[in-house]
Design brief:
alpha+beta, Diaminopimelate Epimerase, Chain A, domain 1, 2 domains, 17-stranded mixed sheet
């Protein structure tokens, strides 16, 4: 039996495995089956806690999308893992190590604040296939055009539109994600500024599809809105399908993300049901 914890951040849901004592090595097919909402526990991402490699970190977080492939970053999962570690260690602040670096998190009462690190904005950083200004990238897919490129540990293409609710993201999302312009594929956000200054965002996640929330996507959206001059200041609420995150882009280039981290239930996989699938 393989124990797991089911968690979510604003409905962006995760299966969390603890490999700190015993290594866990799952095939792509096993992750796909366990993440399937009909055959497994169902989740957007598989998160594996491993021993920290950096002495400054409390835990290493490995992230695999529902398609089984490993990815670099996940903001909502970082808050969830940070909450688990704060509860386990009895500390108000923890450091989560990922393949792209150390993320520092602190208890903010009912929420968790994570420093997501520096926003990267160069065309090579996103990355895209050609030298261009990432403030308005030369890309048109159906009704979507001229996205802002932002890397928050993973790539994002942010499209500002008059009404994000009317965008057929199910149709446009996969075409943008897999467009040759993005050699490592990309996450896709469609965004509309609201009357109260908040940003309404919908997301198509690379390797997953439409999700209720995306923490790195919300960070990318705030950075893109500041760069475009769409909002006043450097902070705003980003309203996702699953709820609201507060994002701030500091003058030093680092991004602070604040939002909830919720535990749903615990269980165990019967690994004999997924034998090397």
């Amino acid at each position: 039996m393989l124990p797991f914890i089911k968690m979510h951040g604003l409905g962006n849901d995760f299966v969390v495995l603890d490999a700190r004592e015993n290594p866990i090595d799952l095939t792509v097919a096993q992750v796909q089956a366990m993440a399937d909402r009909r055959t497994g526990a169902g989740c957007d991402q598989f998160i594996v806690m491993e021993p920290a490699k950096d002495s400054a970190a409390d835990v290493f977080m490995r992230i695999r999308n529902a398609d089984g492939n490993e990815v670099e970053a996940c903001g909502n999962a970082t808050r969830c893992i940070a909450r688990l570690m704060m509860d386990e260690l009895g500390k108000p602040e923890v450091t989560v190590e990922t393949v792209v670096g150390l993320l520092h998190a602190r208890d903010a009462g009912d929420t968790v604040t994570v420093n997501m690190g520096q926003a990267r904005l160069g065309w090579q950083d996103i990355p895209v296939a050609e030298d261009c200004d990432t403030l308005t990238m030369p890309l048109t897919v159906g009704p979507l055009e001229g996205p802002v490129g932002v890397n928050v540990g993973n790539p994002h293409a942010v499209f500002f539109v008059p009404n994000c609710e009317s965008v057929d993201l199910e149709a446009a999302g996969p075409h943008v994600e897999t467009h040759p312009f993005f050699p490592e594929r990309t996450n896709v956000e469609v965004v509309t500024e609201q009357d109260d200054g908040s940003l309404r965002m919908r997301v198509w996640e690379r390797g997953v599809g439409i999700t209720q929330a995306c923490g790195t996507g919300a960070c990318a959206v705030l950075v893109a809105a500041v760069r475009r001059g769409i909002i006043d200041g450097r902070a705003a609420d980003v309203v996702l399908d699953g709820g609201t995150l507060h994002i701030e882009w500091l003058e030093n280039g680092e991004i602070l993300m604040t939002g909830p981290a919720s535990r749903a239930y615990s269980g165990s996989f019967d690994t004999s049901v997924y034998p090397g699938a």
